[in-house]
Write a structure and sequence with these properties.
3 helices, 37% strand
Length: 467
């Protein structure tokens, strides 16, 4: 589907970089070929970007393992260690990127369930944008488009349609996968584009069907932040007000019962980007706005407004609750701030600052994943561009010893091998077994900004995740 003519991309036409690499090709059926040598050649320097983006020699999927993944950059901080065994990494472009976005980008955090990874990208166009949900099948090594948001909404021509899924993707106990939409530009959230608010949607993998759960649960607000209580089926969100309503309304926090299709609570001073859920208690935690501050607790069993706790924390990204009853969070880290790792004991609500998260110059982290034991956390600094300045490090944080280890540096190897400069990620997810990390990258094929989205499947060596 081509975008409307009025929508323009800010990306300049640039060339892919020429390079040679060692690659492994996987066929369409997902059966890996033996590792071998293959030469990849990019387009000439004068060629513009083409759509859809393709891997070298038109390959659908590339499988790679190289000692270059363990080559540190000069920006590596003292005390940060590097893995000894390189991972196997599989790489593929997201299908459906058949036209220039503004840009194609990932903004919401994905989720891994047994044998599957669900993630979302969007074209960032406005007012007539579109966003898509994808399913990666680990057994078949295939990535398919599962939801076309514009088709689900089925709105008349000229009506606002969202260009982003900025919320989390969360599975419910009812078998549905829940998420929410967000605008591509705040300037289009006006009456001129029939803007009434954004949507809570859901997708059922077994039935391969999607539907609207709620239209404008908070009128004239989009929904960039969310978390779902899977058992109680309560969808929690943080909003962004429509244009010219920021001072009047501000960010809202809300709770929506998806079983009852009913708004349970809405109040001011909500979270801009992240919420934490403790399924063991049903309590939700957040920091108002998008910075370090007072920890707020909302308890649906108690009712009423959120309660301020006697703790401060940074909460730009949060893990799921571990079996030991812990939540881990990382602070914003933008500007001159140092990104810090925190823990929350969900039984005592005690907050502890564990230490710095950065491994180089980059601090901004927007996705944080814990392994099943709670021993290891995984993340990539430099989310909004800049990760390549530190070599696109994939970091493992040992919560027991408070040690940072880089399990792979993806740059500059990917640039040389595939013409891909990975600019950062807003979506990563760890498999339930703790052995595979899925990362959706905002990727550049030669320009200063990113232009397309790429998936890497990182198989973490057993020796690098020993108990």
């Amino acid at each position: 589907m081509k975008p409307p003519m009025r929508c323009r991309t800010f990306l300049a036409a640039t060339a892919r970089r020429a390079a040679a690499c060692v690659l492994t090709v996987l066929g369409m059926a997902g059966c890996p070929a033996p590792m071998g040598h293959l030469t990849a050649t990019a387009a000439a320097a004068s060629s513009p970007l083409t759509w859809p983006p393709r891997l070298p020699q038109g390959q659908t999927l590339v499988r790679d393992r190289t000692e270059a993944f363990l080559r540190p950059t000069p920006t590596l901080r003292p005390g940060v260690v590097v893995a000894r065994t390189p991972p196997v990494i599989e790489t593929m472009y997201y299908p459906g990127q058949s036209y220039a976005g503004n840009p194609w980008s990932c903004w919401g955090d994905g989720v891994a369930v047994t044998g599957r990874y669900y993630s979302a990208i969007g074209d960032h166009l406005a007012p007539g944008g579109n966003a898509f949900l994808y399913e990666y099948d680990a057994a078949r090594r295939t990535l398919r488009q599962a939801v076309d948001v514009r088709q689900v909404l089925a709105l008349p021509d000229g009506h606002y349609t969202p260009g982003k899924i900025h919320s989390r993707l969360d599975p419910g106990a009812d078998g549905w996968l829940y998420f929410a939409t967000h605008r591509g530009s705040p300037r289009v959230t006006t009456d001129a584009h029939h803007y009434r608010g954004d949507w809570i949607l859901r997708y059922h993998p077994g039935r391969t069907t999607a539907e609207v759960v709620a239209a404008a649960p908070i009128p004239r607000h989009s929904i960039p932040a969310s978390v779902l209580d899977p058992g109680r089926l309560i969808f929690y969100g943080g909003t962004a007000p429509a244009m010219n309503r920021e001072k009047e309304e501000g960010i809202r926090f809300f709770a929506y019962g998806v079983r009852e299709r009913k708004l349970l609570y809405s109040g001011p001073n909500g979270p801009a980007r992240s919420l934490a859920l403790a399924p063991s208690t049903g309590r939700v935690y957040f920091v108002p706005g998008n910075d370090t501050g007072a920890l707020m607790r909302f308890d649906p069993a108690a009712g009423g407004a959120p309660t301020r706790l006697a703790a401060e924390i940074g909460m730009r990204a949060v893990t799921q609750e571990t079996r030991a009853g812990a939540l881990y969070a990382v602070s914003n880290g933008q500007g001159a701030r140092e990104a810090m790792v925190y823990s929350i004991d969900t039984r005592t609500e005690r907050v502890e600052r564990l230490g710095p998260a950065a491994v180089g110059t980059q601090h901004y982290i927007t996705s944080l994943d814990a392994d099943p034991t709670g021993r290891y956390l995984y993340y990539v600094p430099g989310a909004h561009g800049g990760s390549e300045q530190d070599g696109c490090p994939v970091v493992q944080y040992d919560t027991r010893h408070r040690r940072r280890k880089v399990i792979a540096f993806l740059h500059p190897h990917f640039a040389r091998a595939c013409g891909c400069t990975l600019r950062g990620t807003f979506s990563s997810a760890l498999s339930p077994e703790g052995d595979t990390l899925y990362v959706t990258w905002n990727n550049s094929r030669g320009g200063r900004a990113w232009d397309s989205c790429l998936l890497t499947v990182i198989h973490i060596p057993e020796s690098e995740r020993a108990p």
